[in-house]
Recover the amino acids of this structure.
């Protein structure tokens, strides 16, 4: 059995405002409700227990209306004490595993919760976090005192997972051995003092702690990002072959006994990509939209038109999500060039290679392309745009 303790007993003094930050509205829903729902919907979490401030009972009741939750536990004077009270409330019917999470981290992903639960099969404690890529400075009175070595340095987040018995005993030992012990800012510090090792697993950037008004704006932006609509565009191009020694596909020259039988826009796959990109913004094919007979477009290479189409998507607030490209040709075979083609496309589209699929019809296909008379390409692109 796995239980989750959602810690929301703080006052949120850095944020200010008439009510504590966990009850501030995010998309017209209290932040703490977003967080609780993330754990309530997870299939491996069997109990969700909130810990709140005694002055917030009415706010909490309104925020959790109609949710299937046990009564909240009243927290203590520090986060450390609040977590201990939450653990002690579960001791009568103890879970095997317990997850501790901040009430003001509403964007915890289901996959992250699952990863924490799974990691507890291999050790008594696990923390989510992010490795630190930036140079760290320790400052005093607004001036740099020293540069801190960032090697093996991580920013700890929640959720943090523990063997329930180990965490409860650790909290009790730390408390009763020294009741005036300075507040430990997260539960991994408590378990470390108990003498147990804590594993670290990768968290996510969106799982940040809402602490300031700027954080709340960032949270609203994330929610708006989720309200996007998908546009799908389809593109096609083909050309006959003529004498030559190579065929260029996705910017990669591939040796062949023939070449494309035209003098401009000779990269057939990229031409199909351009048409598919334009389709996601409701435009016609590349020849219609760019009108290659105009001086500004005459003689341009195929990759130029791909970049122009990508710019159109960006100017409309869109982003390319996925591209599926099929080469229609018995030869040349792309087998040894697929990775290079993918890398070139990824660079042109400014997306990760994992969002690109390139394949080729089998050589045994009959018809125009199967006979080797020419080459074709068809492409599907999915782009996301803000909903109107």
């Amino acid at each position: 059995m796995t239980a989750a303790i959602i810690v929301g007993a703080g006052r949120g003094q850095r944020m200010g405002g008439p009510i504590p930050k966990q009850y501030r509205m995010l998309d017209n829903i209290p932040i703490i409700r977003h967080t609780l729902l993330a754990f309530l919907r997870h299939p491996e979490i069997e109990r969700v227990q909130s810990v709140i401030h005694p002055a917030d009972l009415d706010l909490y009741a309104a925020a959790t209306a109609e949710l299937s939750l046990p009564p909240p536990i009243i927290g203590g004077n520090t986060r450390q004490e609040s977590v201990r009270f939450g653990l002690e409330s579960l001791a009568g019917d103890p879970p095997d595993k317990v997850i501790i999470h901040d009430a003001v981290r509403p964007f915890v992903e289901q996959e992250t919760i699952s990863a924490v639960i799974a990691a507890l099969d291999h050790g008594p404690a696990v923390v989510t976090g992010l490795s630190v890529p930036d140079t760290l400075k320790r400052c005093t009175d607004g001036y740099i005192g020293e540069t801190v070595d960032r090697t093996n340095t991580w920013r700890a987040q929640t959720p943090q997972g523990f063997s329930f018995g180990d965490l409860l005993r650790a909290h009790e030992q730390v408390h009763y051995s020294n009741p005036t012990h300075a507040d430990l800012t997260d539960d991994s510090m408590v378990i470390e003092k108990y003498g147990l090792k804590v594993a670290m697993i990768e968290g996510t950037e969106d799982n940040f702690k809402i602490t300031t008004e700027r954080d709340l704006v960032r949270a609203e932006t994330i929610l708006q990002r989720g309200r996007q609509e998908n546009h799908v565009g389809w593109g096609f191009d083909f050309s006959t072959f003529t004498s030559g020694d190579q065929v260029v596909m996705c910017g990669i020259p591939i040796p062949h006994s023939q070449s494309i039988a035209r003098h401009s826009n000779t990269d057939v796959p990229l031409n199909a990509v351009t048409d598919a990109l334009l389709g996601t913004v409701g435009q016609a094919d590349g020849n219609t939209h760019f009108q290659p007979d105009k001086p500004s477009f005459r003689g341009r290479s195929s990759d130029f038109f791909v970049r122009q189409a990508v710019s159109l998507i960006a100017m409309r607030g869109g982003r390319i999500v996925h591209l599926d490209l099929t080469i229609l040709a018995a030869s040349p075979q792309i087998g040894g060039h697929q990775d290079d083609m993918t890398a070139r496309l990824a660079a042109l589209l400014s997306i990760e290679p994992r969002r690109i699929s390139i394949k080729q019809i089998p050589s045994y296909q009959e018809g125009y392309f199967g006979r080797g008379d020419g080459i074709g390409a068809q492409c599907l692109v999915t782009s996301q745009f803000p909903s109107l």
The two ends are 44 Å apart (CA to CA). Residues 164-177 form the longest helix (14 residues). The mean pLDDT is 89.
